[in-house]
From TrEMBL:
PROSITE patterns: PROKAR_LIPOPROTEIN. This is Cellulase (Glycosyl hydrolase family 5). One of its GO terms (molecular function) is hydrolase activity, hydrolyzing O-glycosyl compounds. It comes from Saccharicrinis carchari. Gene3D superfamilies: Glycosidases.
């Protein structure tokens, strides 16, 4: 999920060299780094996990009635009926895994209710044969946020209401780190051993929104918290930008399962795959498919299946997130884009492109 730009992932030897410009460590960073490295799954453990899970394929899921993570999870707007209906459409075409974003504010406001809603979501997804990847933190889109009613979508603007977590607030209120630690450990401990969760994606696109290495302390901390809990599910943070060499190195050296984002055509996507194979671990592409960028189901999903790489595209159903519009091409009047950027289904459940759904079904065996 990008804001204005996407840098291709061609991860070469720079991932194997040392970090040259690490930011000043927080008091917990060295402990977190040590815990992260020592607690990482072995390659053998990771491969056993991959064999057990098989080929994961699905979408980044936000119900069409939610503009952002808070609207998804707050009690007033949690929408199990829509979740059930839309995951049913995913089941019908053979998808078996959704990547779903959380938000610490929804937990802060109502800790037990938040976890109850997570359980309800998992119950619904499981009824459709769908596993879940939960995402904790995120450096994308709007820097500020608050609990309560969320903004209405801006016509024709991609992800106009999506919010970072924790965003600028962590830099303005450094003591927030203490709440974030409690939050992450509470969720990991609560759902440790839950087989419906296939993986914890600890941090989406660290360094985005111009943060760069400013995101390194939280990245190190969240891995450290994860290693302290040692949940049964693997931990990962996906690489996404060639320019963030320090962050990339830390991410791939501490992730149990290698994850990445790529929104480009088949040649560059294959090069990214080849560069990441060296780690010898199962891989999941946790974001792909941007039609304008020559990243289609037709030319990318077959590659991912052939390589036995998890295929999690951006977007399932057109809705309040407005991600059928491109990152950097708003349509002020909110009219239909000539080419949808993301999404598989229209709001009524009909496919945006029938031939895409037919291809997906042929690859998943849902025909």
């Amino acid at each position: 999920m990008k804001k204005h730009i996407f840098l291709s992932i061609i991860l070469g030897l720079f991932l194997l060299v040392g970090c040259n410009s690490s930011p000043k460590s927080s008091k917990n960073n060295e402990k977190a780094l040590e815990a992260g490295t020592k607690g990482r799954w072995t390659v053998e453990q990771a491969k056993v996990w991959g064999e057990e899970k098989g080929w994961l394929r699905g979408a980044n899921f936000n119900p069409s009635t939610a503009i952002n993570q808070l609207e998804t999870w707050q009690a007033e707007t949690f929408d199990p009926e829509t979740i059930d209906r839309e995951l049913g459409w995913a089941e019908d075409i053979g998808l078996n895994c959704m990547r779903v974003y959380l938000h610490h504010v929804a937990w802060q406001v109502d800790k037990e209710g938040f976890k109850d809603r997570m359980r309800e979501y998992l119950d619904i997804a499981d009824s459709h044969g769908i596993k879940t990847i939960f995402v904790f933190f995120d450096d994308c889109w709007n820097a500020t946020y608050q609990a309560g009613p969320q903004p209405e979508p801006k016509p024709g603007v991609h992800n106009s209401g999506w919010v970072r977590d924790p965003g600028d607030l962590l830099h303005e209120q450094p003591t927030l780190i203490n709440d974030l630690e409690v939050y992450v450990k509470d969720i990991l401990n609560t759902f440790d051993g839950d087989g419906r969760i296939v993986m914890w994606d600890l941090y989406n696109e660290p360094g985005n929104s111009g943060y760069g290495n400013k995101s390194m302390p939280l990245l190190k901390d969240v891995f450290g918290w994860g290693r302290e809990v040692r949940p049964s599910q693997p931990l990962s943070v996906g690489v996404w930008s060639l320019s963030l060499s320090d962050l990339n190195k830390f991410q791939v050296e501490n992730s149990d399962i290698i994850t990445y984002h790529n929104y480009e055509g088949p040649e560059k996507h294959q090069a990214a795959i080849d560069s990441l194979k060296r780690y010898g671990r199962p891989m999941i592409c946790t974001e792909y498919m941007a039609r304008r960028n020559n990243s289609y189901f037709q030319n990318i999903m077959p590659i991912l299946k052939r390589e036995n790489i998890g295929a999690i595209n951006w977007g399932l159903v057109d809705g309040k997130s407005n991600t059928k519009y491109a990152w950097d091409e708003p349509i002020a009047d909110g009219s239909e884009p000539q080419l949808w950027f993301h999404e598989i289904f229209r709001l009524d459940g009909t496919p945006y492109r029938q031939e895409e759904v037919e291809l997906i079904m042929s690859l998943t065996g849902a025909e």
